[in-house]
């Protein structure tokens, strides 16, 4: 039998050394051509398949088909390498990787595995709690929470109008579908004052018509929020 062939059912298992992992773990064999063979399903698998098994909570042990060496750590590291190279949602920050490398050969190296395992273990235990908190915050009551926040922000905005004049230039639109309430007050505000008298005039704030326009737009925004709550 060549190395790239699947093992037969009668093949002795003496080549599989004992592992610290569960005895019920699925056995994966890696051949010289880098193909991975799942002995439980009698199919070839990929690193992506193994990553899926990890996420599903399926334990597996990877053996080198020729030497019988347990290479689970190497294969798991390859999975992490592949995931990190996707470049979308990296789990390992650059600084973390640098710090991790510094521990190799350091007197503290022996403590790092236990520390990382302990920390991740606690995180796993808190997983369900964190998910529940996120659902509570962003789940069924999310819209209500966002609406209440919007109303508070609206009140703060209205209060700030009474305190600061003239209004700042370049403010973005507040909410989709609404005109910028600062637009009327900021027309021409990008032109610097030519003299002390013009600066004094600008400090007088917007005209009565501008203020009325702002009030009308704020009222429209408030009405829109009330409609969303119905």
Characterization of the model:
By secondary structure, the protein is an alpha+beta fold. The protein has 2 domains: 1-91, no CATH class; 142-228, no CATH class. The protein is built from 9 helices and 4 strands; from the N terminus they run E-E-E-H-E-H-H-H-H-H-H-H-H. It has a 4-stranded mixed beta sheet with strand order 3-2-1-4. The relative contact order is 0.06.
Fold blueprint:
Blueprint lengths: L25 E5 L5 E3 L4 E3 L1 H9 L4 E5 L7 H14 L8 H10 L8 H14 L1 H12 L3 H22 L19 H4 L9 H7 L5 H21 L2
Parallel strand pairs: 1-4
Antiparallel strand pairs: 1-2, 2-3
Helix pairs in contact: 1-2, 6-9
Summarize, please.
The protein has 230 residues and is of the alpha+beta class. It is built from nine helices and four strands.
Helix fraction bin: 40-55%
Number of strands: 4
User: How widely separated are the two ends?
Assistant: 72 Å
Instruction: State the domain count.
Output: 2
Q: Could you spell the SSE succession in H and E letters? A: EEEHEHHHHHHHH
Major beta sheet, specifics? 4 strands, mixed
Cα radius of gyration in angstroms: 32 Å
């Amino acid at each position: 039998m060549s190395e790239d062939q699947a093992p037969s059912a009668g093949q002795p298992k003496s080549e599989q050394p004992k592992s610290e992992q569960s005895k019920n773990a699925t056995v994966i064999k890696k051949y010289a051509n880098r193909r991975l063979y799942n002995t439980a399903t009698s199919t070839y698998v990929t690193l992506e398949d193994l990553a899926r098994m990890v996420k599903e909570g399926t334990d597996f042990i990877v053996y080198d088909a020729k030497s019988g060496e347990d290479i689970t750590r190497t294969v798991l590291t390859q999975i992490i390498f592949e995931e990190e190279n996707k470049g979308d949602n990296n789990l390992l920050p650059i600084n973390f990787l640098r710090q991790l490398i510094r521990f190799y050969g350091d007197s503290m190296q022996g403590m790092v595995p236990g520390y990382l395992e302990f920390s991740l273990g606690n995180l796993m235990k808190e997983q369900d709690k964190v998910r529940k908190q996120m659902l509570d915050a962003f789940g069924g009551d999310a819209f209500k929470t966002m609406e209440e926040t919007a109303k508070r922000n609206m009140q703060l905005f209205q209060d700030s109008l009474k305190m600061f004049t003239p209004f700042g230039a370049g403010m973005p639109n507040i909410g989709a579908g609404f005109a910028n309430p600062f637009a009327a007050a900021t027309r021409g505000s990008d032109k610097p004052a030519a003299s002390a008298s013009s600066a004094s005039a600008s400090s007088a704030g917007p005209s009565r018509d501008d203020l009325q326009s702002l009030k009308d737009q704020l009222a429209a925004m408030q009405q829109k929020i009330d409609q969303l709550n119905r």
